[in-house]
Amino acid sequence: MLELSVKPAAATATTHDVSAYTDQAVQIGLHLVAALLVLLVGLWAARRLANFVHGALGRASFDSTLSGFLRNLIYGLLIALLVVTALGVLGVPSAPLVAALGTAGLAIGLALQGSLSNLAWGVLLAVFRPFRVGDYVTAGGVEGTVESLNLMHTLLVMPDGREAIVPNGKIGSDAITNHNRRGTRRFELTMGIGYKDDIGAAMAGIRQLFEADARILQNPAPGVWTSGLGDSSVNLVIRAWTRTADTWGAQTDLLRAIKEHFDAAGISIPIPQRELTVIHGGLPAAAPGQG
């Protein structure tokens, strides 16, 4: 009788364990299915939202580099949030995971401090746009034409054809000079005429040369003034405005035209002169009694 009573109890216990394992497996399976659904739907929604933001920024004429960066940033943040949510559905505690992600982000930020500075300035340069591709600028101590701008550095082509890759952090922390943002530029020449030459005639001739060159703008009006009296010349300062693309050619051509006009009009351009006085005579005679 004892043996008959033990066997049903063991069978009952075994059946209960199997039922408990089955319930656990079903719950785990349901959690896995729910987590997979969260991931699939979340990935679809994150991609759609990121693409929507990218398209909206494009329609708002945002810089393509900045809009692409913001699209990827939003997508990455949504994916991180999605992973934490999916793990929470599986029953994994989210607080330790968030703390670990925060610690990892802090460590990465400290390790990439310089790169993050360039990245931050790249975003600011793309937002505020102190210069555009094709502008001739002085930025980060380098002068050249902007070839490209990305989130980490700016590529400048220098006047002699060399390429300069300037970190955005250096550009943002220094003064930026945009030479052609306004479309016009002023150039300045300085030259001297002799003291015996007619200053009025020289200035009138230069004004005629202003009118003869169509590249020199009349508004703002060009001008010529006396700027000082040098050691051997009366110094004149000449200022004129041109369109940005015409500045160099108009400046060099005007300088040559002034020289040729002065030569034809008999107006001299003196070179610096020095007077040297030579005193002839021998050494002073020795006093009596001195050898």
From TrEMBL:
Subcellular localization(s) per the UniProt record: Cell inner membrane; Cell membrane
Mechanosensitive ion channel MscS C-terminal domain location: 188-269
Entry annotated with the keyword Transferase: no
A Pfam family this chain is assigned to: MS_channel_2nd
Membrane topology reported for the UniProt record: Multi-pass membrane protein
Assembly, per entry: Homoheptamer.
Record-given protein name: Small-conductance mechanosensitive channel
Organism (species): Rhodanobacter glycinis
